[in-house]
Amino acid sequence: MTPTVAPPTTTPTTTPTTTPTPSTRDRLVATARDYLDHDGTDGIGLREIARRAGVSHGAPQRHFPTLSALLAAVAAEAFGDLVLAVDRAIAPIPEAAGRERLAAAAFGYQRFALANSGAFGLMFRADLCDIGDPDYMTSGAAAFAQLVAVVREAQSDGFHPEVRAEELAGVMWATTHGIVSLHLHGALAPMTGCADPATVQQLANELFIPSTSNHRETP
Question: Measured between alpha carbons, how far is 178 from 188 in angstroms, rounded to an integer?
Answer without folding.
Answer: 10
